Every structure is written in C-alpha cells, then in structure tokens.
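W.,

You were right to be curious about this one. When I first looked at the sequence I had no strong expectations either way, so I just let the prediction run and decided to look at it fresh. Below is the sequence, 156 residues in total, followed by the output.
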Amino acid sequence: MTTAARLNAFTLIPEAYRAMAAVGPAIEPVLGNMLIELVNTRVSQINACAFCVDMHVRALLEGGEDLQRINSLVTWHEVDFYTPRERAALQWAESLTLLTATHAPDADFEALKAHFNDKEIAALTFSIAQMNAWNRLGVGLRLPVARKPLKVPAAA
C-alpha cells in the first residue's frame, strides 16, 4: 500500500516544527545518540509509525549498530543483547508509550536510578515524550516512507 501525506504541517506551521526539532539536540549530549535511537525505534514500533521506524532504524545502522540487536528490539524482553542501562531505558519507554495500560509504574521509574542520574532520567523522559509526539504526527498525517538506499559504514 502506498500512502501520501495528508498535509504538510511542518511547512504550514514551521515555528511549531522548529520548536519540536530543538528538543533532540538538547537531549543528545546528555544521553548519547545511540541510546536515543534505540529508544526512538522501540517507541515508534509500539506506535506503528512506519516513517519513524524507517528513519530511526536507518540512523542505528548508519551509526554502526548491530543488525541482530535492531531486529530483536521488538523482542528485547526475550533476548540478552541489551545492557542493563538499555533495558531500563526501553522499559521506561514502553511504560510511557503505553501510558493508559501501565500508568508509569514506580518499579519502572525506580529501575532507572541504578543506571541514570536525575538529569539523564529527565532527558530520557523528554526524549520518550518527544518521540511519541513525532509518532502522532507521522501516523496522523500519514507521512510516507520513501524507498531509498541505505548508507551503512564499511566494516572495519
């Protein structure tokens, strides 16, 4: 199935787009790009945002992430490919993305404290909220996924 965007909100209200786009660069120095991309990919999988899944998987691959870890992200609970820090972040991402079902349990928040300081927890929470907002734009406006070649760095 091919889809076309319902409309381009980013050009219709560029000030809102620029404000949303400013969140990522504020968070990246705190958490690091690869953790953010893992979380963004998982949130986008849950929200079924094809545009964002494509974009963040590409970013992971281009950043040198292992293909098996990317493929297993949807089943991260069942494999041991992720560090305890990543697992805590992924659990928090799922808790906040599935908010009506989880209500962001204290146990998930407490688990973060073993791996993240308060500033990092705040950054992670902003990042998850931001990704959920982007997903709602992507799904709601039917952002199309363009077929394009992948730029993967050569193996060392």
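Here's what jumped out at me. The chain has one domain: 23-140. And, maybe more interesting for your project: The mean pLDDT is 94.

Coffee later to discuss?

I.
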